[in-house]
Amino acid sequence: MATRSQSPRLARRLLARLDVYQWNHSILEDFDETFSELLQSGGPLRARCWYWMSTVMTLAAYLKFIMSWRFHMFRNHLIIAYRNFIRHKLFSFINVFGLAVGLGVCMMITLWVLNECSYDRFHKNADRIFRVERELFRDNLFSRWPITGGVYRQALIDDIPEVENAVRFWRRTLVFKDHKEFRRQQDLYAADNSVFKIFDFALEEGDVETALTEPMTVILTRENASRYLGAEDAVGRSIPVEWNGQMVDFKVTGILKKVPVNSHIQFDTLISMASYPKEQFTNWRANNLYTYVLLTKTASKRDVEQKFKTFVGRRLEPYYGDLLGRGQAIHDVLKMYLYPLTGVHLHPSANWEAEPGGSVASVYAFSLVAILILIIACLNFINLSTARAGKRAKEVGIRKTIGAAERQLRRQFIHESLMLTFISLALALVFGELSVRAVNKIFSGNLSMSVLFEPLNLAVIVVAAVALGILAGLYPAFYMTRFEPAGVLRGGVYLGRAKSRFRRNLVVIQFAVSIVIMIGMFTVSRQLHYIQTRPLGFDKSNVVLLQVRSSWGATTYESLRNELLRDPRIYAVSSGTDAPGDPLYSNGAVMRQDSTEVINMIYYTTGYDYAETYGMELAAGRAFSRDFGTDAAGAVMLNESAAKRIGWTPAEAVGKRLILGDKSAAAVVGVVKNFNYKSLRSEIEPTIIVLRPDVMTQVSVRIKVGDEEGALRYLREKWERTFPEDQFEYGFLDARIERAYEGERTTRNIGLVFASLSVLISCLGLLGLVSFTAEEKTKEIGIRKALGASTGKVLLMLSREFIKWIILANILAWPLAWFLMNKWLENFAFRTDIGWGVFILTGILTMSFGIITFISHTVRAASVNPADCIRHE
Amino acid sequence: MPVLAVREEIILSSLLILGGRTHAAPLREKVVELSKREIVYGTLYNLLEVLIRKGYVTSRKSDPLPVRGGRSKAIYSITAKGVRALQETLFMHDGIRKSIRAFAVET
């Protein structure tokens, strides 16, 4: 036929695919007819144009038609799904609840992870800001020093053209006098004015160009300003600050906008760096403040670090000669590098970090847990959906007989799964909203669900939910649509053995994953318990720490001490600058008299009675004592590892003399047993305790066990009488040490919650499976009972199989859990072993959970009157 | 009896004009003629599909055409129900026209 050969072939083929139209219409014939007419009246070009245009527009019309038709089907599917949901309330509830819990947990963890990763990203220049850090080689290991001296900043700007700007942050604690003439301790940073050029910290009032340029200026948050100045306008007024023993007026030049919580630098008050005389920042060996640099847009980190080598050689080498051994170059012991601002929070330095920081390991661990829980929840969902298949088989059979294609049925089941997923999602959001406060407490964070409702995140969630729904619906969809209508409608066997093996495998995997999570949780708890109860080398309980004002001298302290010791409830009093558990401590050189080797040690500067107050045990010699006049002339104590490092046994050390960093000599009067001043994550480093009765920032008081309340009251009374102007501020040593383990405690708490949730979800899966099996075996149970089996025997018979599965899950999970937890434990210098108990305990726990779930469901099936269930079919 | 939509009305009218029984090509031409607007087959099929569901039109395949490889065409016929619906709609139009005229005279 002439017309047909001339009509566009591609368009014809497209049209031929519009199957739904073919039922009632004859597309190709209709098109051909009009085409041949046009061919005669308007010529081939016009006809072909018409053919193509009509094809395209018909395609569009067809799509519209199909969509509306699909929509009707979708509505129908939803109605069917709803009816099924209502008919099997418990089952549907279990299904949706399990998924909702999984999604909720996932959401919470995602929120937390997002929050952890958002640290310091709010700065516009975040990717160009770096912290200048150094690595020092000391006692055969490199240690990271995030702090530098004050002299670095200008030198960096001068020497390295890529450094656009730099700022110093110096942590200080000053005493401010408020408008009621009360003195308060204020933690703050001294900073350069360039802070506003580099970071996005902002002022609510005041000029960012000049706020911190003048000496004796202060900027503070509105909240803080009203604390010190009352409610009135703060800018332009001044606050008296204790400065080198006198009260000096600091002028308020600005009101600081609150620092975002996700900043690793936290402050509510800044004073100008210019308040300190320039001479204070000339020492290249000083390590006391943080230096941040802003690189130019074109600079690369690597180039700058290359230039640091020259910088170290030129500027630092002259001052670090004493650290060099024979034949060593400065680059062997000291390395200077840039640390990206956005990495500081998740990779904090072990030492000299002002804020506790996060842990990238927990971010990974919890992301993993989130994924695992989501997998469990999905498996559970798939499992429960397929387990219900028997109940839906008749529906499928009838639909098929009426003429539904498998494809359409599959679509139906996927629609159903989508509906359940979205119900779960809604439920999960409700859970999230309800639990976000509790979660904030355990995560010690401030998460907000509102983040999830930002358009982009919401879109991601919806897309993820759709993907999840389709994925979870896929297996049931393919499985259930395969039923043969004839067999199903006759009520015959529609469930092959292979199918139930698949479901069994799912349950085993679910259980295995929960077991891994449970073992993880137990190990974290065990490790935490281990490090918290391990002897610290000192007695952390009942030590009260009082903050000291700089205006005090040694005489004030002595009188307070004598006053306090008069009360029998107070056991010992000591002064000093360092207490175990402080995150910051100093570090210096020590030399033997007969050797030129320089040994770097942790320095503790303390007063008399230090060992008594902290309950430290002596390995040899004695503690500092007023009774020995020689002590005042220079006395030190070592810890065991310091003595070992020098090459002495504790007994040998006593009586020897050492040269300290400032070239003064001191006698070793005693050696204390090793004590832990940092978290037990790290090894105990060589430490020297130097007696300096005149230097103190805090007073420690050991009170006797019994009447702690009374002792505290007495302390407060004496304090207020001695220093009427100062507020009584105190803290307990054990509370301070507890804080060092906050990260582990958080991990444990979260782990506990997650482990319980994962076990819960797995048990739901088991419940689904059990109910399914029990139903399948109703007839068998009935016959067995009719033949004389007792309920107990039937239960035993049914449970034998489940017990086998749980044992299998345990066997699968143990090696994996053992491997993972050993990896985690390697983070700790002092660690417990995993122990067989944990494995056996989880085994017993999962077993009993499984059996409880099992029994609670099968008892009903087993106790039914056999006559009823045999008649069942 | 529900009132027809304008496009349904045009299709039913065209079908009636063409003798109540025809296939898609003449029907389309008539519809274009009556409505003075181009209409593609897809849109026509969609409307016919609606009319078939409502029971105003039936469709059946004709015998194969008497050419080599000739296939059957779909033949649409208007049902009695369709005729009644069309009448009713046309009556309604008349009523409206009359009241509008009366209104126009008054003012």
Describe this structure in words.
- With 873 residues, chain A is of the alpha+beta class.
- Helix content of chain A is 53%, strand content 17%.
- In chain A, the strands form 3 sheets. Chain A has a 6-stranded mixed barrel.
- In chain A, strand 3 (163-177) and strand 4 (183-191) form a beta hairpin.
- In chain A, helix 15 packs across helix 16.
- The two termini of chain A are 63 Å apart.
- Chain B has a 3-stranded antiparallel beta sheet with strand order 1-3-2.
- In chain B, helix 1 crosses helix 2.
- Chain B is of the alpha+beta class and 107 residues long.
- Chain B has one domain (6-106): Winged helix-like DNA-binding domain superfamily/Winged helix DNA-binding domain (Arc Repressor Mutant, subunit A, Orthogonal Bundle).
- Classes of the chains: A alpha+beta (873), B alpha+beta (107).
- The A-B interface holds A 1, 21, 24-31, 33-34, 37, 53-54, 57-62, 64-65 and B 23-25, 28, 40-43, 45-46, 48-49, 52, 59, 61, 65, 67, 69, 71-74.
Quick overview of this protein structure:
By secondary structure, chain A is of the alpha+beta class.
> Secondary-structure element sequence of chain B?
HEHHEEH
Number of domains of chain A: 4
In one word, what is the shape of chain A? globular
The amount of beta strand of chain B, in percent, is 5-15%
Q: How many discrete domains of chain B?
A: 1
Q: Got a strand count of chain B?
A: 3
Largest sheet of chain B: 3 strands, antiparallel
List the strand order in the largest sheet of chain A.
Answer: 3-4-9-6-8-7
Percentage of β-strand residues of chain A: 15-25%
Biggest chain pair contact, residues each?
A-B, 23 and 22 residues
Straight-line distance between termini of chain B: 34 Å
Question: What structural category characterises the helix and strand content of chain A?
Answer: alpha+beta
Q: Percent of residues of chain B in helical segments? A: 55-70%
